[in-house]
Amino acid sequence: MRVKVEKDELMLKDSSIGLIKLLMVLILFVIGIIIGLVSSSHIDRYFNSQPNNFYMNYVTVAPAPSYTTAIEKTKVRDNGYNCSTDLSNCKQQDCLSMEGFRMPKNVTHGMRDKELFWRASLVPDKREYPFERVPKVAFMFLTRGPLPFLMFWERFFRGQDGNKYSIYVHSNPGVPLSFPNSSVFYQRQIPSQDVRWGTVTLVDAERRLLGNALLDFSNERFVLLSESCIPIYNFPTIYKYLIGSTYSFLDSYDDPTRYGRGRYSLRMKPDIKLRDWRKGSQWFEIQRTLAIKIVSDTRYYNLFKWYCLPSCYPDEHYLPTFVNMFHGALNSNRTITYVDWSLGGPHPASFQAENITENLIQHIRNNGTTCSYNIEKTSICFLFARKFNPNALGSLLRLPSTLLGF
Ligand SMILES: *[C@@H]1O[C@H](CO)[C@@H](O)[C@H](O)[C@H]1NC(C)=O
Ligand SMILES: *[C@@H]1O[C@H](CO)[C@@H](O)[C@H](O)[C@H]1NC(C)=O
Ligand SMILES: *[C@@H]1O[C@H](CO)[C@@H](O)[C@H](O)[C@H]1NC(C)=O
Ligand SMILES: *[C@@H]1O[C@H](CO)[C@@H](O)[C@H](O)[C@H]1NC(C)=O
Ligand SMILES: *[C@@H]1O[C@H](CO)[C@@H](O)[C@H](O)[C@H]1NC(C)=O
Ligand SMILES: *[C@@H]1O[C@H](CO)[C@@H](O)[C@H](O)[C@H]1NC(C)=O
User: Fold this and answer.
1) Which end of the chain is more exposed for a tag (fewer CB within 10 A), N or C?
2) Is 78 a member of any domain?
3) Which helix (H) or strand (E) holds 24?
4) Is ligand 4 within 6 A of the CB of residue 321?
5) Does residue 337 form part of some domain?
6) Mind listing the pLDDT tens digit for each residue in 92-127?
7) Quick check: is 146 in a domain?
8) Which residue's CA is minimally distant from atom 5 of ligand 6?
């Protein structure tokens, strides 16, 4: 009994000691907070005042070099370092120009591919643009020599809204191309490198075109064209078709023959399996999202570079396979560039001067089949056609504009 009372008393004592301790801790804590608040506001005030003074000193002293006159000083200050009007100030200050950032005026630059692809892969997190963004179609010409259908293309672009398209030309460095200053192709040549057909350098050139075109934030659709390609509809039709499409037009199919699956290399395992392997025409048309994914890929590109060697052709397999594996939902899996394989053999038919008729164009436009477009069907399956022999230019230019629409 006695033992129990003592125990109870002890417990009571214990708990009251605990309470007092808790109170003291609380009081100390509150005092601590008060001291902290008071001192930090002092510190804030102290430090805040420093940068202000520093900044004021800097602004009044820094911009005007000692040799400028008083008049020049006020001029510089009133300008507010306007980089878009006066670039000479940018030598002293690291100015950022919005114009040049959202659309480089000069497509010439000294960036290596690695640097270009990194820049091209940047995506704004903010949904709204701080400028009025009219979506553009980027026409990307991959050419070996000069453009034989330059005059036909000039006619195609004549009178069209320059805010709706942009042009990029990748040509072999050995072939100097020069366009008159009145041409829409004037100064649209990107820094190019040698392309050897059937090698990965062809894919490099495609990615280089994409990378350069991505630097213009208004480019929304990207179409790859060769020197033997022509448009078979007018610009407004093509623009509406591409900008209105939910899907990209990148040819991608499974070819079970030795020209398809036969080119797969087991060394690409485990990253790429035979069931992932696809084939398709290199002449694609893709949307911005997909273009960014393509310039951002290194891993799968490298597998093709290392293991897709003759008689495997990277340009026929890399994009169809890569897009099938990761971005199939964005793709219509068909191409919008017509080509005629009906003659058989390893090369498609090449249209000569004597083949160019209204009927040919009509036939290319519509052979009686329909194609999927978003969730509908359309009779327009192709917007561009190849291959045309350079001797066809005259006949093409003589086609009535009522037929072509330009
Ligand atoms: C900079 O120049 C642009 C174009 O001339 C002009 O619209 C803008 O108001 C200028 N900005 C400043 C701060 O002077
Ligand atoms: C474009 O930039 C290149 C190199 O950066 C320069 O040599 C060339 O003169 C520039 N062209 C124009 C029209 O500004
Ligand atoms: C275009 O080139 C012609 C001759 O080559 C020249 O006379 C003219 O001044 C140039 N125009 C512009 C805007 O540079
Ligand atoms: C294209 O193929 C992908 C598979 O790579 C598929 O997911 C997609 O639905 C196909 N697109 C259309 C429009 O059928
Ligand atoms: C072009 O015309 C020639 C001569 O009429 C003909 O032999 C050839 O098959 C035609 N080519 C195509 C692709 O239609
Ligand atoms: C029409 O064109 C489509 C698409 O290229 C092709 O699949 C089809 O075989 C062609 N039909 C005829 C009758 O030529």
Assistant:
1) N
2) no
3) helix 2-61
4) no
5) yes
6) 556 678 888 899 988 999 999 999 999 999 999 999
7) yes
8) 338
